[in-house]
Structures are given as structure tokens and as C-alpha cells.
Specification:
- The chain is mainly α and 105 residues long.
- It has five helices and no strands.
- Helix 4 packs antiparallel against helix 5.
- The longest helix is centred in the first third of the chain and has 21 residues.
- It is flat and about 60 Å long.
- The relative contact order is 0.06.
Length: 105
């Protein structure tokens, strides 16, 4: 019964993605629908990132020694000022490594 449910979910997921791209439906999307698609990555990635940056050991929130949170804030500042993804990732990772390794010395 579980395998049947998994297969049905897979088929439904495939059809949801395949039908609009296959040309079976020739209807054009409205401009507002097309414009709303640009917000999907933001809506999907924000909860993942916030969860990873805020919850640390034993599913507890703490901010004093949460170096991931501080590196994330630095990355946000870099992203807003430079609009360069490579600089954002590089500076964010470098700041996390520096804070987590040098602060505990």
C-alpha cells in the first residue's frame, strides 16, 4: 500500500511539471502570473535559511555564540551592497570560518 502511494505521488508530481511544459495546453499565462513566478525562490528558500541560521544545538535558539547567524547577516549586507553572488558566498563563508575558529582561541 505504501509503494502504491509513493508511485501515485510520483506520477502526479511528474504530470504537474510535464503538462505545462509539453505544449499539451497551449494557453498562455497571464502577465501577473508570470511576474509572480519570480517570488517563488524567495518564498521557498527563506524558511530554509532562517531555520538553519537560527536553530543551533538541541533545537534551542541562542544568539550570543551563533556564528552562522552573524555570518548570515554579513552576507545579507554584502548581497545588498554588491549584488554579486560570488562575493556574497565567499565573504559569508570566510566570515563564518573566521568567527568559529578565531573567536574560540
Amino acid at each position: 500500500m505504501i509503494w502504491f502511494g509513493i508511485i501515485i505521488c510520483g506520477v502526479i508530481t511528474f504530470l504537474i511539471r510535464f503538462i505545462p511544459m509539453s505544449g499539451i495546453i497551449s494557453r498562455e499565462l497571464s502577465l501577473s502570473t508570470k511576474n509572480s513566478f519570480k517570488y517563488i525562490p524567495l518564498a521557498v528558500l527563506t524558511p530554509i535559511i532562517v531555520d538553519d541560521l537560527s536553530i543551533v544545538e538541541n533545537n534551542s535558539l541562542f544568539f550570543i555564540e551563533n556564528y552562522k547567524l552573524y555570518a548570515g547577516l554579513i552576507s545579507i549586507i554584502v548581497a545588498l551592497t554588491t549584488n554579486n553572488i560570488l562575493a556574497t558566498i565567499s565573504i559569508g563563508m570566510a566570515s563564518y570560518l573566521l568567527m568559529s575558529n578565531l573567536v574560540n582561541i
